[in-house]
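Re: (R)-mevalonate structure - here you go.
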Amino acid sequence: MTKFYELSTAERIDRLRVEGAIGEDGLRVLTGQAEALPAVVASNMVENHIGAFPVPLGLAEHFVIDGEALRVPMAVEEPSVIAAAGNAAARIARSGGFSTSVRREGVVAQIVVTDARDGDGVDGGGKEGADRSPLDRLTEYVRAHEGEIRRVARQAHPSLERHGGGLRGVEVRGHEDGFAELDLLIDTGEAMGANVVNTIAEAVSVHCISHIDGLDPLMSILSNESAGQRAQSVARIAFDDLKTRDMDGDRVARRIVKAARFAWVSPLRAATHNKGIMNGVNAAVLATGNDTRNINAAAYADLSDRKRTWTKWTIDEDRSQLVGVIDMPLPLGAVGGAMSTLPMARLSLALLGHPSAARLMGIVASVGLASNLSAMRALVTRGIQSGHMNLQFKSLVMSAGARPEELDQVVAGLRADPAHADLAMAKRLLQRLRAESK
Ligand code: MEV
């Protein structure tokens, strides 16, 4: 059977239809641009809407995650990202695929208060208890009235408990400069839950402020830190599946471990290493209609001088395998927001078999790990450019104005002289081709 990557776009869509991976709705969305993001949908999502900004959607093949074979939708403008993820996934699949585990404890909302006498707030001076710090006042109230806080939270969003979520924890913390915060840990069920969490936080804030004297409510907002919404994925690759034409697999594996270690010791390198991971993570997150900014904020908040990246690579000498682990916050949802509104996001989720939010977290973590492996394998063997070149030449030739039927010949011309391949050369080659075919 012809390989997926060898088919034309129309043939790939038809193969998905024949396989039952997409139905009539999916077919319409993939073949009709207007269906992909109707103006009536988009204009109700953002302000001053004038159009849509499509980026390519592709499928990274060969993923086997917890025993299930998947093609993962990825939306990304950068050439090679999808091929690289699929290439690493194939090597990993030959040793059994990815094993994932997920923690989904909830999203934290911060209700931040200061002393009303510090200015800018309602003057609470003179009221009973106003001589104590905001932290003491908040702590005392929460200790005595946690049940009431839970009731207010429930009433603020009654449907959350029906969907398996709800308030899971309440904690008070103090800070320097007189800041105090009441943290609510909220299980958002299958949703990412920003609106639910912020609605509950604002309701609890109003309740607390009306019952505690002398506090100025500064803000109520979820934290994107997301330490409790984490996914881990582990992959093994036999040395033999890492070899290149010029380097044996054992050597490639050890060089990958070194490259990964270097990201832990060099902040300059860590930034790039992490960009490679986020190439895959962001593309899969965007394809499913999740909030890429939330995922990036959460992921980078996990890093510090002591933890410079989310992946670790080691050697299993007994089994002659390279072992990779990724562990990162991924506060994803599987329903609600753009996931339910955007036809393309709905299609991606359907292609993934309508995963739960936890399952989606494991899938996205695996894509991040695969992207990391692919980048490092290229870097420590033949270098990154040779693999990138083909697709980059294609974009150059398209920018030069080539028609699809002219693409291959002009790309071949650029490939013959890569040192001088640029837009001007692509234009010259195109002119020559057209002159010759007159
Ligand atoms: C390019 O988009 C990403 C890489 O630079 C990642 C890396 O260096 O690990 C190839």
